């Protein structure tokens, strides 16, 4: 673990503000990015606020990492019956094979053919995130 180089700044109201070295920040962020370690655990072990570490992580990953505005949204229409599913032809150069039916609460999602991977991932993530979609 990198040693912290800490500079304490006194503000006009008598409050102190700590400044951490870039190496210290990078070391903590890289620890927090490991899949087996939680952000809160790294922050707690190093005596900093979890929100501060989350801000450093966002800065480390770049401006679009985790930015919901970077996700393309697609129109979705919820219908009462699965029988009214719309068949969309497969993109040119692909073979329309297979069928996927997902039931989540009262919602039924039926996909035939070969959907675009990013669109399918977005739809599945949104449908499964909604508890008992209705």
UniProtKB/TrEMBL annotation:
Coiled coil: none annotated. It comes from the Bacteria. It holds the Pfam family HTH_Tnp_1. GO terms for molecular function: DNA binding; transposase activity. GO terms for biological process: DNA transposition. InterPro entries: Homeodomain-like_sf, Transposase_8. NCBIfam families: IS66_ISRel24_TnpA. This is Transposase. It comes from Pararobbsia alpina. The lineage of its organism: Bacteria, Pseudomonadati, Pseudomonadota, Betaproteobacteria, Burkholderiales.
């Amino acid at each position: 673990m990198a040693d912290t180089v800490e500079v304490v700044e006194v503000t006009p109201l008598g409050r102190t503000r700590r400044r951490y070295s870039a190496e210290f920040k990078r070391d903590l962020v890289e620890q927090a990015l490991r899949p087996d370690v939680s952000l809160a655990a790294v922050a707690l072990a190093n005596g900093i606020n979890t929100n501060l570490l989350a801000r450093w992580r966002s800065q480390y990953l770049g401006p679009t990492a985790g930015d919901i505005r970077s996700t393309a949204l697609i129109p979705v229409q919820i219908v009462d019956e699965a029988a009214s599913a719309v068949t969309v032809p497969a993109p040119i150069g692909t073979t329309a094979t297979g069928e996927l039916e997902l039931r989540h609460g009262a919602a039924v999602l039926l996909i035939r053919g070969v959907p675009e991977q990013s669109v399918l991932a977005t739809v599945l993530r949104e449908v499964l995130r909604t508890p008992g979609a209705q």
